Each structure stands twice: as structure tokens, then as C-alpha cells.
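Bug report (template v2)

What were you trying to do?
Predict the complex of my protein with nicotinamide-adenine-dinucleotide.

What happened?
Run completed; filing so the output is reviewed.

Input:
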Amino acid sequence: MALPQRVIVTGAAQGIGRAVALHVASPGVHLAVWDVKRDGVEETAKLCHEKGAAARAWTVDVGDADAIEAAVSAFERASGARIPMGRIGRPEDIAAVVAFLLSDDAGYMTGQSVAANGGAIMVP
Ligand SMILES: NC(=O)c1ccc[n+]([C@@H]2O[C@H](COP(=O)([O-])OP(=O)(O)OC[C@H]3O[C@@H](n4cnc5c(N)ncnc54)[C@H](O)[C@@H]3O)[C@@H](O)[C@H]2O)c1
């Protein structure tokens, strides 16, 4: 299975989050590991780096929307990623697409994959 090249793992200082980070850590993968526990998440980043990933630790509280926005933007800059729409997606962005697909306006659509990603798929 091909892994995404840019991955953010939350709660990554220990437990499941650290295990997920270490599982995806490999050469060519840009990995951001987030947690409120600075020491633990820095250790996770170090272990991921040893597996060949470009890994970086961030002290982020996932209950803080502004902190998430800032950390995602910083990760995009650090990993060379870019979202053409200039912001991360909001739950409402996805809900609107789902509502459209459920509506009569989409009544003649079958078996489509719809990308609601701010245009990120257009980035080479
Ligand atoms: N371990 C299991 O068997 C198991 C089973 C089912 C569900 N879960 C759930 O999966 C999740 C992870 O499990 P775990 O065993 O790895 O837990 P854990 O407590 O070992 O690790 C959770 C990590 O999340 C971090 N964290 C907590 N709040 C945070 C916040 N606001 N922002 C950023 N980081 C935060 C903690 O600092 C910690 O490093 C938990 O919600 C747990 O309830 C675990």
C-alpha cells in the first residue's frame, strides 16, 4: 500500500500515536508528530528520523483550533506542501459536499470520487 508523503500524527508522544508514527516513518515521508507532551513527542520525532523520515515534533494541543491552524501552516511550509485555497479544510466544507451528493442535484451521478481538498491535488 502506498503511503501518503506528508503525514500528521496527533497524540504522538506515546502509545498508539507513537506506534502509528513509527509505522509510517520511512525515507521520503514528511512526518509531523504532535502532542502536548514536549519531551515525549521530541523522542518520537527522533525515533522516526532514525527510520529515515523527515520528522519534526510540534507541541500542539488538538483542542486549540488556532494552534492546529498554525501548526498545519508551519508543516506545509516545512514540507513544501501547499493548499491552493490557502487554508485547511473545515468540517463544514466536507458536510456541504456530502449534502450535495445526497441531494437530487447529484441524482445522475454514480460511483464518483469527489476531491474536497482545497485544490491540494493540483500541486505536483
Ligand atoms: N490503548 C488502547 O487499547 C485503546 C483502545 C481503544 C481506544 N483507545 C483510545 O485511543 C487513544 C490513544 O490511546 P493511547 O493508548 O495511545 O493513549 P495514551 O494516553 O498513551 O496517549 C495519548 C497521547 O495523546 C496526548 N494528548 C492528550 N490530549 C492531547 C491534546 N489535547 N492535544 C495533543 N495531544 C494530546 C497525550 O499527551 C498522550 O501522549 C485514546 O483516546 C484512547 O482512549 C486506546
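What did the reviewer find?
The chain has a mean pLDDT of 89. Residues 62 and 68 are 6 Å apart (CA to CA).
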